[in-house]
Amino acid sequence: MEETAEMMNSNLKLNSRDRAVLMKTPFLNGLGSSSLVGMLSAMSVLSLASRTSIFREGEKPDAFYCVLSGYVRLYRLSHEGREADIQICGPGETFAECLLYGGDRYAHHAQAAENVTLARFDMQAVRDLADEQKDVARAVMTSLSRHLLNSMDCVANDRLFTAPQRVANYILARCPVDGGPASIRLPFQKSLLAGMLGLAPEALSRAFSTLRKTGVTVRGRAIQVVDVAALRDI
Amino acid sequence: MEETAEMMNSNLKLNSRDRAVLMKTPFLNGLGSSSLVGMLSAMSVLSLASRTSIFREGEKPDAFYCVLSGYVRLYRLSHEGREADIQICGPGETFAECLLYGGDRYAHHAQAAENVTLARFDMQAVRDLADEQKDVARAVMTSLSRHLLNSMDCVANDRLFTAPQRVANYILARCPVDGGPASIRLPFQKSLLAGMLGLAPEALSRAFSTLRKTGVTVRGRAIQVVDVAALRDI
DNA sequence: CGACTCTTTGAAGCGCGTCAATCGAGGTGG
DNA sequence: CCACCTCGATTGACGCGCTTCAAAGAGTCG
């Protein structure tokens, strides 16, 4: 919790790391300078402590967000209070931008899964910008397309693969190499990964221990893979 | 199979029913007349027999589609050959339009689940149109947004609800009334509904028989609900 | 050291997939 | 018109995979 001091302030100016993340986003990276100015003036920065609610399902949407640091959890509740994660958003990822032209209510809850800093975009302002400048419209379309592909991927993964297979897929997707040994580090705690893969934390734990016999070693957030190629055969 | 003769022909002109479906699509319904002309000239109509492949995962995308009549199945294959449906597209629904600005390969297979007629849109032509005319860009954004919301809904449903609950949700979503008795008719065969809900056909069958004690009667494609309000409590 | 929180492990149960057999509806041909 | 064939839907039996609950282990901070 070394960020506690920063955490208390809202509407801070961007620090250089957050600024770099923001500019690499599909939303901003291809924009001309005038559009960029417009987007930045429709935007504000905010920092939230872990577990803070960002918006709730059913509320009127007035803004969408881009994660600058930390992770955000999008989830929905069942009638009995069980929660199911729909998506985990990390640095550079945008969420709720589908409401620019979609429904008139937030379709799920959003919560800070850690201490986070967010860029908040006013929806009406961005709609107006997109109406006037085509590079903004194009950025919106690119972001929506990526998002949609990810979401459909998620459905396919849930329906096709078992827990160990999904975990293997996750690891493989972040291994830089094609074969041989590799080691990666989880960017968040395991319970978040579990939700992201549509699993209970216990199921993730068991999936890891199943993968031990395929050469996967886990200690804390560090994951070691003996042979990436072997893992791909799962 | 009374449509066999029509089935053989490609690039037919639109009949009036298909034309009406097409115009109500988010893609075309808000367009100005010049954009509309552009879109129609980027489009061709084709009819396909049931089970015909429309495109395969991994192919280079050159077009996206809008269903005019019949149903289309989007699915992905596992390594062992099992298939999982990602989405079922009915009349008025568009698919693969996320590749306008998304990936450079089709992300899944598309197959005619029945005899279908489709509007085929040339991607590069639509990209060019969207670049020039903002109502086209807006139509693309609207379509993508809807699609994304549906897809996220699908993830949430899969993760939150059991088979009978998902079936109940499906029925409720197409019941015009809020309470009391209702009766609806499935627009396709049950195996398609099963895939749409992420179930094996047997599981759908069992879900229906579970719902019998909640006042749901099924005969063929006809579904009768004694009390819609009671069904909502599941 | 003790009080958290996160993770792991065990045990039990349920939901769903799979395989196989049966049933029913539609269509075909004798 | 009926026997037959095919395909979709149903039902039963079985097993696997995951959730749930409970408790213990591991890490982290005061």
UniProtKB/TrEMBL annotation, chains A, B:
Gene3D superfamilies attached to this UniProt entry? Jelly Rolls, Winged helix-like DNA-binding domain superfamily/Winged helix DNA-binding domain
* Residue span(s) of domain Cyclic nucleotide-binding: 27-147
Q: Which SUPFAM superfamilies match?
A: cAMP-binding domain-like (SSF51206), Winged helix' DNA-binding domain (SSF46785)
User: Can you tell me where the transmembrane regions are?
Assistant: 27-49
* Top-level taxonomic group: Bacteria
Q: What range(s) does the HTH crp-type domain occupy? A: 161-229
A GO molecular function term, named singly, is: DNA binding
**PROSITE patterns tied to this protein:** CNMP_BINDING_3, HTH_CRP_2
| Keyword Membrane part of the UniProt annotation | yes
> Transmembrane as a keyword?
yes
What cellular component GO annotations does this protein have? cytosol
What SMART domains is this protein classified in? cNMP, HTH_CRP
Keywords assigned by UniProt, alphabetized: DNA-binding, Membrane, Transcription, Transcription regulation, Transmembrane, Transmembrane helix
| Name used for this protein in its record | Crp/Fnr family transcriptional regulator
Organism expressing this protein natively = Rhizobium deserti
Q: What is the lineage of its organism?
A: Bacteria, Pseudomonadati, Pseudomonadota, Alphaproteobacteria, Hyphomicrobiales
